[in-house]
User: Fold Efflux RND transporter periplasmic adaptor subunit from Neoroseomonas terrae.
Amino acid sequence: MPDTLMPRSSEDAARRPSAPRRWRWVVVGLLAVALAGGIAAWRMRSPAAVAPPPSTPTVLTVTTVVATPRSVPHRIPADGPIVAWQEMRLGMELGGLRVTDVTVEEGDTVAAGQLLARLDDSVIAAQLDRADASITEAEASLALSRAELRRVQSLIASQNAARQTLEQREAEVLRNDARLASLRASRAEVAAMLAQTRITAPDAGVILARDILPGSVSVAGQVAFRLLRQGRVELEARVQEMDLAAIRPGQDVLVRHGARSVAGQVRAVAPSLPGNTRLGVVHVALPTDPGLLPGMFALAVIDAGAIETIAVPAEAVVFRDGAPAVFVLESDRARLRRVTIDATLKDGALAIAGGLTAGDRVIAMGAGFLADGDRVQVGDAR
Assistant:
């Protein structure tokens, strides 16, 4: 039986889109394709985009100065304690004697020969009196023996005395003469001991210390007084070993202690370095009564003449890694060079002890903004 076309249900008819609606979607798709193609064609027809030019490094404009040699004062710093120019230790030469009197105190100014202390001299004075009596007796015996010798000599001349008698009288004179000389030497010894019971100042000065009291018993060799000879003090300046070669006796020295300034002179340079300090000792003589006392600590500047150095403006010196340096112009590049600063000059320039040679072109203005190897442009050379 032939197939017959059966009409669809009303539900199927509702699900199937209508013809006008399908054509609408087809047109929208064609328009989208055309738009995409047009954009692609426009891009192909437009000129290619130009890539941005590569960036060029910034060139800093700087000024330069020529490193020039200059003769500058050589000032050597030093420091150290104030010490006695010469400290005299006055001791007691006799032991076992009582100290009867002490006439000075610490800080007193004394004159040469002034009595400082006295020991009990009663026993020694009695010994001296006995020595004097013995000498008087010996002198009388010598005089008598000489008179006897003269009488024997006259008798020998008249042949009334034996030769043996003459020899005996001559021997007696020699014996008495020797005894007198011995007694005189003994008296001198006692007199010296008597003088040692009096302690006197061997020179003018200031008493730094007194170590005995009245009533104490003397001990041979004991230090009784410490005397600052002539009241003079000096600075025992300590100097770096590399600076010692430039220091000579007679050079001027400015010594500072707080607000006080004292002018001195180099007296002597110690011939060796004490210990392992690597510091030399320079003895600086100070004027009388400088207002400085032994034990104080002072600073000093030694005028060691003049030296030749290289000077650059202060603005040319920069610090890299905590060390001073300058930039030297090499062609159109700034090259970092380490330097050693010696001193600041009166016009504000810096004296360079090492790292530069005369004629180097040093960058002044703009040095603080540079790094090693930077390209620079010189704006104004000085």
Summary: The chain has four domains: 61-73+308-381, 76-85+231-306, 88-116+202-230, 121-196. Residues 1-17, 46-50 have pLDDT under 50 and may be disordered. The two ends are 122 Å apart (CA to CA). The domain at 88-116+202-230 is CATH 2.40.50.100 (OB fold (Dihydrolipoamide Acetyltransferase, E2P)).
